[in-house]
């Protein structure tokens, strides 16, 4: 059986984040992408894996899609949450945080594979750690993703 649309979306999100490499398109280079946040304090993260992005498919609403006469068309509104981590030995993370924040948004909004799976994606929220962890900056970027699927296949 083929992967659900939701699974395909998250695979595309992971691939788009992995493709963030400094150059003509991006300012940052993401060293590590994983759907599993490490256990324990952020200070225990292997610094060779920072900057890091941890995408997860979070809450979702589903309802019949008002498209044509097919009652089996459904629309999902999925929250994709990307937790990001940057580090600075001099405790100056603002520039790296802002650069990666922009790069993550650019990667997800501009990825053609993701775009082919969804109806729409919009950035909805950023929540930061408010600078409470010395030398690190941790934040969540939230994206609302609308997609359609057939009820018989599941989302």
Lay out the secondary structure.
Layout: H1 5-18, E1 32-33, E2 52-64, E3 73-87, H2 94-110, H3 112-117, E4 120-128, E5 136-150
Parallel strand pairs: 1-2
Antiparallel strand pairs: 2-3, 3-5, 4-5
Structural account:
It is built from three helices and five strands, in the order αβββααββ. A hairpin with an 8-residue loop joins strand 2 (52-64) and strand 3. Strands 1-2-3-5-4 form a five-stranded mixed beta sheet. The relative contact order is 0.24. The chain is α+β, with helices and mostly antiparallel strands and 155 residues long. It has a single domain (5-65, 72-150), classed as Phage minor tail protein U (Alpha-Beta Plaits).
- Helix percentage range: 10-25%
The CATH architecture name reads: 2-Layer Sandwich
Q: How far is the first residue's CA from the last residue's CA?
A: 13 Å
Beta percentage is: 25-35%
Could you spell the SSE succession in H and E letters? Answer: HEEEHHEE
What is the H level of CATH, i.e. the homologous superfamily?
Phage minor tail protein U
* Sequence of strands across the biggest β-sheet: 1-2-3-5-4
Low-confidence stretches: none
**Gyration radius, rounded:** 17 Å
Mean pLDDT: 89
Entry keywords:
single chain, 155 residues, alpha+beta, Alpha-Beta Plaits, 5-stranded mixed β-sheet, 3 helices, 24% helix, 35% strand
Question: Brief description of this entry?
Answer:
The protein is elongated, with a radius of gyration of 17 Å.
């Amino acid at each position: 059986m083929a992967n659900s649309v939701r699974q395909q979306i998250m695979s595309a999100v992971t691939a788009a984040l992995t493709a963030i490499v400094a150059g003509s398109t991006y300012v940052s280079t993401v060293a590590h992408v994983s759907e599993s946040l490490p256990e324990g304090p952020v200070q225990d993260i292997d610094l060779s894996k920072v900057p890091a992005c941890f995408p997860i498919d979070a809450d979702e609403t589903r309802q019949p899609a008002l498209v044509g006469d097919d009652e089996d068309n459904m629309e999902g509104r999925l929250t994709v949450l990307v937790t990001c981590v940057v580090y600075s030995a001099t405790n100056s993370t603002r520039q790296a945080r802002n650069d990666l924040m922009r790069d993550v948004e650019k990667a997800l909004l501009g990825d053609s594979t993701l775009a082919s799976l969804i109806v729409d994606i919009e950035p909805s929220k950023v929540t930061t750690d408010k600078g409470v962890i010395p030398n690190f900056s941790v934040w969540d970027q939230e994206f609302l993703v609308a997609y359609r699927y057939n009820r018989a296949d599941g989302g």
